[in-house]
Design brief:
The chain has helices at about 10-15, 50-55, 80-85, 170-175, 240-245, 340-345; strands at about 30, 50, 65-70, 70-75, 85-90, 95-100, 105-110, 115, 115-120, 120-130, 130-135, 140-145, 150, 160-165, 165-170, 180-185, 225-230, 235-240, 250-255, 255-265, 285-290, 290, 295, 300, 305, 315, 320, 335-340, 350. The protein has about 350 residues and is mainly β.
Length: about 350
């Protein structure tokens, strides 16, 4: 930890009961994002509705977060998360927090049980490297959303467990998971859900907003979209513009065989006033290629992904559609959407995939 005489972020000692004498990052890396503590309110008592009812207000190309624990499938629309950033939830008895940082385009799910205590999270109103800083209400420690670790307060050095979640188009979810539970617009807050408060942010030629951090490696533009996978110490970024050329990538990361699926049809939530009207940026998902004792290899075939061992056709969410493994589910691996600047700030050692 850094020396305790560094001054905590401005006004933080008035807003928080945090032990600011403990911190693992320099305080001058932390910037005020504008809103105060809880000024962007987390959703603590999420209500859910049916796919049929949600279909009245979610457009087909609109991005949503798909998260499941066994048969309990939940959908968190970005049109709601963009205004709240945090949902404290329990899915199939697992306490989880679903998070979204608009400035980094990062949708990340974590288990919120730490040392046998269940934590509840809120927003600090501060950023580090343009990334959401959360706090837990039990100890008021501050947590970096991109990395899942506590960086200020009593729990400094503690790591949240990442859980697999996908950011995909509503159309994909509606088709494959008709029984899913969808986060309701009845949040207890009045917000213009469906509108984007960050109009024009998603421009690859723009600099990131409120970014004060390491110089972004120039292998990609700072605002390039990437899907990132980190396994056993190896980190890889798959640029969306490369994924669009090939549709599928068979790779090995940290010694583990994985596959990346990409398909068009998902709107950028950060471009136009109407969130669903953003340009098509596509969606990418990641899965293990292990099946029993074998390792599958995939190729793109029309609107599906086919494995060469069984000939089964799979969809973007890793479900077997037709063939010998129809109805089976590929095992998802933790993969996270980022803008390149956001990921590279934390993992500059990343391997960047290039299509052959």
């Amino acid at each position: 930890p850094h020396t305790p005489d560094e001054r905590p972020p401005a006004d933080a000692t008035y807003e928080f009961k945090t032990d600011f004498s403990i911190h693992s990052v320099p305080y001058d890396e932390i910037l005020a994002g504008g809103p105060p503590k809880d000024g962007i309110p987390a959703i603590d008592r999420p209500r859910f509705t049916s796919v049929q009812e949600a279909n009245r207000w979610i457009r087909p190309r609109e991005p949503v977060i798909l998260f499941a624990v066994n048969d309990d499938v939940r959908v968190y629309p970005i049109q709601i998360l963009i205004w709240h950033e945090i949902v404290n939830d329990t899915v199939n008895d697992l306490p989880v927090v679903i998070t979204f940082c608009p400035l980094c385009n990062t949708a990340i799910a974590f288990e919120r049980r730490v040392r046998n205590e269940v934590l509840d999270f809120g927003t600090t109103g501060r950023l580090r490297f343009s990334n959401l800083l959360m706090y837990d209400r039990q100890t008021e420690s501050w947590w970096q959303q991109a990395t899942g670790d506590a960086i200020i307060g009593a729990l400094t050095g503690t790591q949240l467990r990442f859980l697999p979640a996908h950011m995909v188009a509503w159309e994909e979810v509606r088709k494959q998971y008709p029984q899913a539970k969808v986060l309701s617009r009845e949040t207890g807050f009045r917000r213009p859900y469906g509108q984007n408060p960050y109009i024009g942010y998603d421009d690859v030629d723009n600099p990131p907003f409120l970014y004060k951090g390491p110089r972004t490696p120039d292998r990609l533009p700072p605002m390039a979209r990437v899907l990132t996978v980190e396994q056993n110490g190896e980190a890889v970024a798959y640029p969306y513009h490369e994924l669009a050329k090939v549709g599928v990538v068979n790779d090995v990361v940290g010694g583990e065989p994985i596959v990346i699926f990409w398909e068009p049809g998902t709107a950028s939530p950060l471009e136009t006033l109407e969130l669903a009207a953003g340009r098509d940026v596509g969606s990418a998902t990641a899965f293990s290629r292990r099946l029993g004792d074998g390792v599958l290899t995939f190729r793109r075939d029309g609107d599906a992904f086919v494995d060469d061992l069984t000939g089964t056709r799979w969809d973007l969410t890793g479900q077997g559609i037709t063939g010998p493994l129809a109805g089976q589910q590929l095992t998802p691996v933790v993969s996270i959407n980022h803008f390149w600047f956001s990921w590279a700030a934390f993992r500059p050692d990343t391997r960047v995939y290039q299509a052959p």
